[in-house]
User: Which sequence fits this backbone?
């Protein structure tokens, strides 16, 4: 017998997408220029036209943010700022389904994830930071730590609204004002968030959103009125930003790439480890900077484990991101799809063995089947470079020391996972792993109270938790 | 003796085999079960799932107050769950206490229900606290009276005190009594075993000893058939099949009261053990109240509205 799940699409009637958008500056939606289309990557349907922000738009946004900082936001008590953040959080919860559907349409990720993970985490991040707003004296940064002023924030397309929350919530809680640029392929939820700011009656200019591409981002980074840069994206762009602000007084936090290692010991809870590996690399189509894109398996269990992984991967449901039963959605853009295809092709050329479950992919939109490569070694490019797609490289090890050496043998250091039922082994391994986040017997778990960030080329600074506040504050007396 | 060429039945071989099974991470198993519970089953697939679930129900009455009249009424319901709609399938089996087996069998045969088997709960159900002689006699009685399925309980006291050989031997002996005449379902009472590691160990112990089905609970102890417990058992039958090429059935019982819960169970089966298990031969749901909710939901799909509960029969 076969149990076919009939399509269970989430209705898109809840969202209202305008034909054209401008920027959100000084509390108002203003017209923009040089529009470019934003599409639904699952169908290539054009959803709307997004304005390409130029130097003058950034100027206006920075000026509005500076004015709001001096005239209102820095004068408010922490308690009053907290009220606005609580209000934003509640509105986000009330409009959660609308945000989830819009995010899925614009990004291509499954509605199950936007509904159950992205949007709940977004609201939680605002609630968490609302609580900090009047308690900054107790953040371990001395008495009355001070905000920097205007924060320039540039976010990626993989978790559009969640990354916005990670940037805006701590900035506002600590008394900074914001000029934020969403990624060029995923601006819609940021623009809807601008409506939430209006609905919450946030003072004009506290949050400004300028849409655009790399040139817009560059204008923000290089603008003299910006006091602090917060960037999430590729290591390549991160390095450019670091060069651009060198010698200036601008502070910066950078959340960059990763090549996370998931180390599975032979005493691991195997079924849950298989589940964790699947979640580690196929969550959000592998468009996760902290994805567990390298599986480092103890040799004695490798064959059995890979067999189980294949059985599990055959159950991954790929298709319409708006279908509530979809596990793996669309790749966010053609550009990204080409990059994934190129690197997977390199894996073939390097002699690694590619495997994907049988699945039919739509010929419209951008799709890539969940893929594993076995027989990968440290010398392969697919073991070293961030693919940022649903592609897992599998390596093996013989001793615990070897596992750690392989896991750490990367220029990145954002995340790692350890799988073992032996407590002492977990404690030992987590101390050795050079990564900002190490998960034990789980993966891709996020919490507002837990700092997130990278070692080495995975970035500077931390976001979230008490540690994340320090990025937005000058130490007090 | 050799059991599937995996253990020889001795205490030490069992201990060794069970000790090398991978552990179950509680958080991970619960997260997976919770994720599968978010599957949205609509329209045609819902209709299919409801009929499949009906055919898998072990319609159960296990009360001190059971009478011949009550059991006969249940038998009628089992054969034709909805007297107004002949397209509704019969349930998987009737599940009763030992002394009701003959009554149930006779009545089923007299109303055209020859295809509905009678399952008897056995081995000093629900506690399992009796001598081996009594347990064997209990089982023999039920089979002689016409039971085609035996739902035996394991000795949880022996299991929890680490006497795996004792638990194993009991299952082997009852298996012998059943022979070719009855299918054997082994009940763990997972609410008393408590940990998922124990559920996994008990699953292998029972499968190696010759169980045809592994079953979560008696229905007398809560919690019973929680989704993560069933998930762990489905993983066990899946992996046992790849070890031995033999498919063992799974029967959650207790706590599955409505269509939503039943469909969640079918999703668990589909995405864990696989679609091969989606048959009454390999998956049963022990329940009493569930059947009426399945019937109500079935009517709702056909009619487009919820009927009054008076449109389904109470027994």
Assistant:
């Amino acid at each position: 017998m076969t149990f076919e799940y009939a399509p269970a699409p989430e209705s898109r009637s809840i969202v209202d997408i305008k034909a054209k958008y401008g920027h959100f500056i000084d509390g108002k939606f203003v017209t923009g220029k040089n529009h470019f289309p934003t599409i639904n990557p699952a169908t290539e349907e054009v959803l709307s036209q997004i304005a390409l922000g130029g130097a003058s738009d950034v100027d206006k946004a920075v000026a509005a943010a500076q004015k709001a900082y001096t005239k209102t936001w820095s004068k408010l008590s922490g308690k009053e700022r907290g009220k606005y953040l609580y209000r934003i959080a509640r509105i986000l919860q009330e409009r959660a389904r609308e945000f989830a559907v819009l995010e899925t349409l614009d990004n291509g990720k499954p509605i199950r994830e936007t509904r159950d993970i992205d949007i709940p985490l977004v609201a939680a991040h605002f609630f968490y930071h609302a609580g900090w707003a009047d308690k900054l004296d107790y953040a371990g940064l001395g008495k009355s730590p001070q905000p920097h002023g205007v924060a320039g924030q540039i976010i990626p397309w993989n978790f559009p609204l969640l990354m916005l929350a990670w940037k805006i919530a701590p900035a506002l809680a600590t008394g900074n004002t914001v000029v934020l640029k969403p990624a060029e392929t995923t601006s819609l939820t940021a623009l809807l968030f601008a409506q939430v700011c209006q609905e919450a009656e946030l003072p004009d200019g506290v949050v400004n959103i300028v849409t655009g591409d790399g040139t817009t981002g560059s204008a923000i980074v290089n603008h003299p009125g910006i006091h602090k840069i917060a960037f999430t994206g590729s290591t390549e762009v991160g390095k450019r930003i670091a060069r651009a602000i060198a010698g200036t007084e601008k502070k910066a936090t950078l959340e960059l790439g990763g090549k996370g290692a998931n180390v599975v010991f032979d005493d691991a809870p195997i079924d849950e480890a298989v589940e964790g590996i699947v979640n580690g690399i196929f969550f959000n189509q592998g468009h996760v900077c902290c994805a567990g894109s390298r599986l480092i398996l103890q040799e004695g269990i490798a064959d059995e484990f890979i067999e189980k992984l294949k059985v599990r991967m055959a159950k991954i449901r790929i298709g319409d991101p708006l279908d509530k039963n979809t596990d793996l959605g669309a790749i966010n853009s053609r550009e990204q799809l080409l990059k994934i295809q190129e690197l997977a092709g390199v894996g073939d050329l390097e002699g690694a063995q590619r495997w994907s479950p049988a699945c039919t992919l739509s010929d419209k939109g951008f799709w890539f089947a969940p893929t594993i490569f076995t027989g990968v070694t440290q010398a392969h490019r697919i073991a070293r470079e961030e693919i940022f797609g649903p592609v897992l490289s599998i390596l093996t090890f013989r001793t615990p020391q070897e596992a750690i050496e392989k896991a750490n043998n990367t220029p990145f250091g954002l995340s790692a996972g350890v799988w073992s039922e032996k407590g002492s082994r977990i404690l030992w391994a987590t101390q050795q792993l050079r990564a900002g986040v190490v998960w034990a017997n789980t993966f891709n778990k996020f919490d507002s109270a837990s700092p997130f960030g990278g070692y080495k080329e995975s970035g500077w600074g931390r976001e979230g938790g008490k540690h994340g506040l320090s990025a937005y504050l000058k130490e007090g007396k | 003796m050799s059991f599937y060429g995996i253990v020889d039945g001795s205490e030490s071989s069992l201990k060794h085999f069970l000790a090398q099974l991978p552990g179950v991470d509680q958080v991970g198993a619960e997260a997976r079960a919770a994720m599968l519970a978010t599957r949205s089953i609509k329209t045609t697939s819902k209709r299919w799932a409801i009929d499949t679930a009906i055919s898998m129900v072990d319609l159960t009455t296990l009360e001190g107050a059971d009478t011949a009249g009550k059991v006969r009424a249940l038998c009628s319901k089992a054969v034709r769950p909805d007297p107004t709609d002949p397209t509704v399938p019969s349930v998987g089996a009737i599940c009763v206490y030992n002394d009701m087996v003959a009554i149930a069998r006779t009545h089923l045969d007299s109303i055209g229900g020859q295809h509905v088997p009678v399952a008897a709960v056995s081995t000093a159900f629900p506690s399992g606290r009796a001598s081996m002689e009594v347990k064997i006699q209990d089982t023999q009685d039920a089979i002689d009276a016409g039971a085609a399925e035996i739902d035996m309980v394991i000795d949880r006291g022996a299991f929890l005190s680490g006497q795996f050989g004792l638990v194993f031997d009991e299952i082997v002996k009852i298996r012998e009594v059943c022979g070719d005449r009855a299918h054997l379902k082994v009940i763990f009472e997972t609410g008393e075993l408590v940990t998922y590691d124990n559920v996994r160990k008990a699953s292998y112990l029972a499968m190696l000893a010759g169980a045809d089905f592994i079953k979560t609970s008696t229905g007398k102890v809560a919690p019973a058939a929680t989704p993560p417990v069933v998930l762990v058992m489905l993983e066990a039958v899946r992996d046992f099949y790849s070890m031995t090429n033999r498919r063992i059935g799974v029967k959650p019982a207790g706590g599955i009261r409505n269509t939503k819960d039943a469909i969640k169970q079918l999703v668990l089966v589909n995405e864990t053990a696989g679609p091969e298990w989606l048959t009454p031969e390999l998956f049963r749901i022990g329940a009493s109240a569930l059947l009426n909710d399945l019937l109500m939901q079935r009517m709702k799909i056909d009619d487009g509205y919820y009927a009054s509960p008076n449109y389904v029969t109470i027994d």
